């Protein structure tokens, strides 16, 4: 969607919001799929209320983009604009065992930065691409670790109240790839409490997790990580694998040969290809196991 309203365009400089026109989401998502729209880069948290009020008043739908590593975006001209936070400076502030991290900070960088200051616990999250904001929204986790376990406070823009609030960790529930944030809450920063550990010990944990990932995931290919959530007590990847669907494809959208719950864009896959592949695999798993797999990937189709 291209913003053409003069009132919105005139207000952007004062809000320190940069508008990039006709940006292709295929270049901003790890799947390499997605149509075009205007991208609004937000430099000041204080601008968000004003910006969203303007967009709402003029009927401009919007979505929040983090690092684009868990997204499947529809093709063509997108019927919404995309908002993205620009990293604050500094992006991470340490005080004792507390790390205050900007939502736009890279998660991997956060893990290694804290490690270098002898703050551990998040070793399992190394290799999860994307931002800290995206990780909070998804309650990203791996190898027995989830980001929610370390959250003591979140600074969040609550669209319903049109204001920034600080929520304590106890006010938020973090479940498997699900959080109690409202769909239109925007995470701005987080305070994480991390256990003290010697850097060498953390580094060893990081190396082990990196190796596990390298040996089991198609890291050189375009993907959004796991497409489906694991059903309670089960493994989506194992079921897809048992059905012999590794390598199964729709156009250039393909079930990875390496990890059956990773679907890759093996060339010029469209969103329609990927959605068709997801639907077909879901149906086959449903028929064979009576289990309806739920998407882990977030689909932006309207
Ligand atoms: C190779 C690979 C491996 C992966 N491995 C894992 C894994 O082990 N564990 C795991 O949990 N995930 C994994 N993922 C998925 C993905 O990296 C995580 O879900 C990640 O936390 C998403 O962060 P992001 O910033 O890229 O979010 P995006 O993909 O940009 O967005 C995801 C959702 O979060 C919302 N969002 C983003 N930022 C904000 C914000 N500031 N405020 C409010 N909402 C926001 C978006 O609107 C969207 O709904 C993997 C992905 C890839 C490509």
Name the descriptors.
single chain; 302 residues; alpha+beta; Uridine Diphospho-n-acetylenolpyruvylglucosamine Reductase, domain 2; Uridine Diphospho-n-acetylenolpyruvylglucosamine Reductase, domain 3; Uridine Diphospho-n-acetylenolpyruvylglucosamine Reductase, domain 1; 3 domains; 5-stranded antiparallel β-sheet; 4-stranded mixed β-sheet; 7 helices; 27% helix; binds flavin-adenine dinucleotide
Describe this entry's structure for a reader.
The chain has 302 residues and is an alpha+beta fold. It has 3 domains: 6-85, Uridine Diphospho-n-acetylenolpyruvylglucosamine Reductase, domain 2 (2-Layer Sandwich), CATH 3.30.43; 92-215, 2-Layer Sandwich (Uridine Diphospho-n-acetylenolpyruvylglucosamine Reductase, domain 3), CATH 3.30.465.10; 220-300, Uridine Diphospho-n-acetylenolpyruvylglucosamine Reductase, domain 1, CATH 3.90.78. 27% of the residues lie in helices and 25% in strands. It has 7 helices and 18 strands. Strand 10 and strand 11 form a beta hairpin. It is globular, with a radius of gyration of 20 Å. The structure holds flavin-adenine dinucleotide.
Sheet having the most strands:
5 strands, antiparallel
What is the typical, i.e. mean, pLDDT? 97
Provide the β-strand percentage band.
Answer: 25-35%
Question: What are the distinct ligands in this entry?
Answer: flavin-adenine dinucleotide
Report how far apart the termini are. 12 Å
CATH structural class of the largest domain: Alpha Beta
Q: How large, in whole angstroms, is the Cα Rg?
A: 20 Å
Oligomer: single chain
Assign the CATH architecture of the largest domain: 2-Layer Sandwich
Order of the strands making up the biggest sheet: 6-7-14-10-11
Spatial shape: globular
Helix content: 25-40%
By secondary-structure content and strand pairing, the structural class works out as alpha+beta
- Secondary structure tally, helices: 7
């Amino acid at each position: 969607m291209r913003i053409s309203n003069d009132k919105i365009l005139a207000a952007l400089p004062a809000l320190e919001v940069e508008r990039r026109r006709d940006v292709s989401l295929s270049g901003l998502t790890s799947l390499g799929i997605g149509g075009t729209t205007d991208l609004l880069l937000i430099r000041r948290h204080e601008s968000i209320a004003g910006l969203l009020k303007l967009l709402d008043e003029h009927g401009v739908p919007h979505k929040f983009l983090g690092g684009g590593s868990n997204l499947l975006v529809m093709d063509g001209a997108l019927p919404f604009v995309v908002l993205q936070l620009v990293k604050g400076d500094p992006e991470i502030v340490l005080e004792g065992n507390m790390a205050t991290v900007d939502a736009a900070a890279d998660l991997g960088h956060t893990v290694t930065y804290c490690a270098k200051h002898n703050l551990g616990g998040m070793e399992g999250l190394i290799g999860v691409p994307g931002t800290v904001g995206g990780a909070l929204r998804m309650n990203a986790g791996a190898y027995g670790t989830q980001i929610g376990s370390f959250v003591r406070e979140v600074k969040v823009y609550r669209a319903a109240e049109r204001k920034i609030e600080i929520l304590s960790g106890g006010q938020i529930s973090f479940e498997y790839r699900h959080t109690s944030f409202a769909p239109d809450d925007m995470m701005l920063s987080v305070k994480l409490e991390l256990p003290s550990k010697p850097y060498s010990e953390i580094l060893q944990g990081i190396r082990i997790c990196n190796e596990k990932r390298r040996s089991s995931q198609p890291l050189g290919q375009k993907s959004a990580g796991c497409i489906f959530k694991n059903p309670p007590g089960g493994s989506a990847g194992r079921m897809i694998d048992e059905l012999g669907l590794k390598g199964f494809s729709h156009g250039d959208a393909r079930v990875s040969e390496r990890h059956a719950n990773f679907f890759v864009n093996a060339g010029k896959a469209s969103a329609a290809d990927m959605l068709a592949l997801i639907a077909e695999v879901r149906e086959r798993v449903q028929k064979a196991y009576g289990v309806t797999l739920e998407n882990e990937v977030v689909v932006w189709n309207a």
